[in-house]
Design a protein that fits this description.
This is Phage protein D. The protein is an alpha+beta fold. It has four domains: about 190 residues, no CATH class; about 80 residues, Baseplate protein-like domains (Phage tail protein beta-alpha-beta fold, 3-Layer(bab) Sandwich), CATH 3.55.50; about 80 residues, Bacteriophage T4, Gp27, baseplate hub, domain 3 (Elongation Factor Tu (Ef-tu), domain 3); about 60 residues. It contains seven helices and 28 strands. The strands form six sheets. Strands 1, 2, 3, 4, 12, 13, 14, 20, 21, 25, 26, 27 and 28 form a 13-stranded mixed β-sheet that branches. A five-stranded antiparallel β-sheet has the order 10-9-8-5-11, with no helix packed on it. A hairpin with a 6-residue loop joins strand 3 and strand 4.
């Protein structure tokens, strides 16, 4: 809680390898930007520092990176980074040394960092929706889950945790947190004048094994969820499979392809979205996310609450009015096919475009479902919009909002990217939207 009599403010809490450096970095911090993506892209973090005295260039950053490179991936007590455990406590903390914590719900979680000897020596991230634990916890606040451990493939890179704290925003003394997640150092840029240091970090580093190692592997009698869980396990991650559909494959060949590229191809072919964040692979059905109730309304006009906007109706790519999926069973010669159509489909229109997909399906129902997903995949960016607003932690990728009074652009949209930035000018949120597709 904040003092109701103080002006509203937003601040960035930053930890390097589990050590809260917020007070040390605050005099130099020019801005921190967190980019949250809905699918396909990694989440990113960018920290910009003023370095007039060359402290970061000549000493501090080098020491931090060197310390991270020698940091172990495990800690005493029988647990290691990457293990899946059952969180049993009731609080989590922004850093391993904080005094004040926030309420957390028990449930399964993954150990993502350790800081032996600190007040809260373990960093946990929940692995499903039963828990919300996302931070540092006490030694006795979790227990092992037999048979659910994962391989320790923690990177030697510098781990950066960030949280945006919005304080007394509505003059009610209440604070609101946006846990940005855990990132790994990706690059450092020095420029000037004026002398600045830009630290860039990502949720899935380019050098990570899941992105870099080319593999050849035969997958037999397996489902998409099974493949995703095995890829996650072998790369020290966990998997959240949130799609009702789960394609089954008699045999697949992964030939000299990285795990993430192979999994991404399977997901696109199946019409399922993929996101890699915070040591978690998330596979989900966009239609289910789009069906959720809007959490926010942007009304056109001077009282709309936005500072900038931009809208577009795309014509670069053809909008398909229908999609047909077909498959000829080689053993029987039987053709299985189904067609999905847009909600405003007009059979008499002369400019109808049909998307043709050839894919293995076992029933007409499966063909219809796949046709709907591919039609959605190709049409989903027909209407887009971008808004810049005062900082709002609720506006994250994957939630839906309503646009009211915007004419042809009115209706329900889903956030494809949320850009949260804290600087000396305040806290702003820029959201990129696409129109929710209805009827298919």
């Amino acid at each position: 809680m904040s003092d109701k009599n103080l002006s509203r403010r937003a601040a960035a809490e930053i930890s390097f390898n589990g050590i809260n450096i917020t007070s040390s970095i605050r005099p130099y911090l020019l801005s921190m930007t967190y980019i949250d993506n809905e699918e396909d892209e990694t989440d990113d973090l960018q920290i910009t520092l003023q370095d007039r005295e060359s402290i970061w260039l000549e000493k501090w950053l080098t020491e931090a990176v060197d310390a991270a490179a020698s940091a172990p991936g495990s800690a005493p007590g029988g647990y290691s980074v990457g293990d899946i455990v059952q969180f049993t406590g009731s609080f989590h903390y922004i850093s391993s040394t904080d005094d004040a914590g926030y309420t957390a719900i028990p449930g399964p979680a993954q150990i993502t960092l350790s800081n032996p000897g600190s007040k809260h020596p373990w960093h946990l991230i929940h692995t499903d929706n039963t828990s919300n634990v996302y931070g540092w916890v006490n030694e006795g606040d979790f227990q092992g889950m037999d048979g659910n451990g994962s391989e320790n493939n923690s990177s030697a890179g510098l781990k950066i945790d960030a949280v945006i704290v919005r304080e007394n925003w509505n003059s009610d003394g209440k604070d609101k947190l946006l846990p940005c997640g855990q990132f790994e150092l990706d690059s450092v840029d020095a420029s000037g004048p004026p002398a600045t240091i830009t630290i860039k970090a990502t949720s899935l580093p380019f050098g990570a094994q899941i992105r870099q190692t080319k593999k050849s592997h035969a997958w037999e009698a397996c489902s998409l969820s099974g493949i995703a869980k095995e890829i996650a396990r072998s790369n020290g991650m966990v998997c959240m499979y949130e799609s009702v559909g789960d394609p089954f494959y008699a045999r697949l060949e992964q030939v000299k392809t990285s795990d993430i590229a192979f999994l991404s191809t399977l997901c696109h072919d199946a019409g399922i979205s993929l996101k890699a964040t915070n040591s978690i692979l998330v596979l989900f059905d966009q239609a289910a996310y789009e069906a959720k109730s809007p959490i926010f309304i942007i009304r056109q006009g001077k009282n709309g609450g936005y500072t900038k906007y931009k809208m577009n109706i795309g014509t670069a790519n053809t909008k398909y009015s229908s999609c047909r999926v077909s498959y000829v069973d080689p053993s029987t010669g039987r053709c299985i096919e189904a067609t999905a159509r847009t909600e405003d489909y007009n059979a008499d229109a002369k400019n109808n475009q049909q998307l043709e997909i050839s894919a293995k399906v076992s029933s007409i129902a499966e063909a219809k479902a796949l046709a709907e997903k591919h039609l959605r995949l190709h049409n989903k960016y027909a209407k887009t919009a971008t808004f810049t607003l005062p900082g709002n932690p609720d506006l994250v990728a994957g939630v839906t909002i309503l646009l009211e009074g915007w004419g042809a652009w009115g209706g329900k949209y889903i956030i494809t990217q949320a850009n949260h930035s804290v600087s000396g000018s305040g806290y702003t949120t820029q959201i990129k939207l696409r129109k929710v597709l209805e009827g298919y």
